[in-house]
Amino acid sequence: MQLRSHTPARTGATIRTTLKVCLSSLALVTAASASTPTPTQINTSRANGLAWLYKNQQGDGSWRLPGGLQVQATSAALDAMMNAGIKSGSTFYSGIASLENAHPSSTDGQSRQINTLYQAGNNVYALTAKLLSQATALYGAWGPLPGYSTSVADTAMATVASVVATAHAVVVWTGYDSLMCNVIVPQQRSSGGWSYVGSLGNNPASAPTNASSASILPTVYAILMVQKVAPLGYSQFSCGMGTNYSAATIVSNGVAFLKTKLNQDGGFGENGTSGALETAMAYQAIKAVNPSDSALGNAQGYLVATQKSDGSWAGDPFQTALALQAYPATTLVSTAGDGMPDVVKTALNINVSTPTGSLKPGNGQSVAGVNKPFVSVGATLNQPMSYSLAGSGGTAPYQYALASGNLPPGLSVSSAGVITGTPTAVGPFSFTLQQTDANANLSYVDTQVNVGAPVDSADAPTLPQWGAIVMALVLLATMALNDKQRRKH
Fold first, then answer.
1. Mind spelling out the 3-state secondary structure of 457-481?
2. For the segment 104-159, what is each residue's pLDDT rounded down to a tens digit?
3. Model-level pTM greater than 0.85?
4. Most-buried pick from 73, 127, 289, 351 (CB within 10 A)?
């Protein structure tokens, strides 16, 4: 190991020289209700999770949360696929294309974009050079956005991206001295973790207690950063003043802090409440330090137990993709050679031998009325109606069930696909029906019922009194003219 000496920027109480690895004794290393899942349970969970990601890819190739975060969700989804050995196929390639064409402004988004595209074999020189140019003048650290105050989490994410690029000669960067001595060491709390605030240029004492205290996510990012930087000559280093530091001790104390956030259900979370996001992230950091840590199996058990019946975690592509990355890396078999694993096709009720240039209608890549069935039905307020769906795309007979959305109040759909009832509200009502054919193949039909108000006979246009008089006079004149002409003949 190499001992490096560096000039400190801050000394005194902020430099934690007495962090003890024995902090791990404070952790709940085992949880009574948590257990390591079996390989079969993991494989099933992985297949269902990937199937959900395949179904919920957007038409432009991305994945996104309702509130945005397209780059983060797309990057995580592609990472989850590559963790399962998926590096080809329509879904994967369109995801990569979407990520290539994205222009994230945040440090978080840029860092994830670089890591994922590099892992996929893309050229990330320009992206990395741009990210490095956005480091602040204050110790070469990063904030959430260019020009913002620096933070441990953003600095750590950007550093990991730069290490990946530098290690493979994509770019050359040597700013690790300053970051290790001016961000990582002085900002590690006595608990062993790092906080969201309190980076250089900020005053931790002035921040709210819940923000300045150590938290799971910034601690995860800091651990992953130290693990990446340590092999570059920082396994042992000095920041001056005769104080030596060990990367192993720094990350061990960080892991000890994370374990204080381990809950009885095997998951990780703040204030005793576990979450898929925190659990998946803590898993990554702990595994990077100790791949055989007993907490890892319990974390996987928590993730398996909290997966929804649709295959997702909380219906969120970002959390779903991170959870899938907590499962062992593997290479799933694709019999058809189209990139989509057999287990995913099975979960989607697709024949494993059938090549899939694109997914079946009903996924996020389809367009209603173009490559996905769309039905529009008219109805009148407070008047009975009945409409029968005509099944297509499979083998009759078909069965139907409401998959999402809502029918107009007063209407229902039968398993035979008959929409009946008396609507009691005006407006367009959109919903999606799941169609199952005789061979149990699933597809989806986007449907819209437009309920209009009835035309009231009292609203029909009528003539005013004077108009009626004029019409009567015209009628009399016409009759008199006809009588006169008849007499001439």
1. HHHCCCCCHHHHHHHHHHHHHHHHH
2. 999 999 999 999 999 999 989 899 999 999 998 878 899 999 988 899 999 999 99
3. no
4. 73
Phi, psi values for residue 388, rounded to 5°: -105, 125
DSSP 8-state secondary structure symbol assigned to residue 268: B
- Identify the segments of the chain with pLDDT beneath 70: 1-34, 66-67, 166-174, 198-212, 357-373, 455-489
- 295 contact partners, CB below 8 Å, separation of at least 6: 27, 29, 259, 262, 286
Considering the domain 3-324 in this protein, what is its CATH number? 1.50.10.20
Rg (CA), the chain: 32
DSSP state letters, 60-107 = TS---BTTB-HHHHHHHHHHHHHHTT---SHHHHHHHHHHHT----SH
Amino acid 432: pLDDT: 80
* Rounded-to-5 percentages of helix, strand, coil across the chain: 45, 15, 45
Q: Domain boundaries in the chain? A: 3-324, 367-489
Euclidean distance between CA atoms 76 and 116, whole angstroms: 8
Q: Lay out the sheet containing 411-413: strands in order across.
A: 385-388, 418-421, 411-413
**Residues sharing a CB contact under 8 Å with residue 174, sequence separation 6 or more, in sequence order:** none
Question: Which token pair is 311?
Answer: 């295959």
If we measure between CA atoms, which residue out of 166, 156, 74 comes closest to residue 107?
156
The residue type of 397 is: P
Rounded distance between C-alpha atoms, residue 405 and residue 353, angstroms: 33
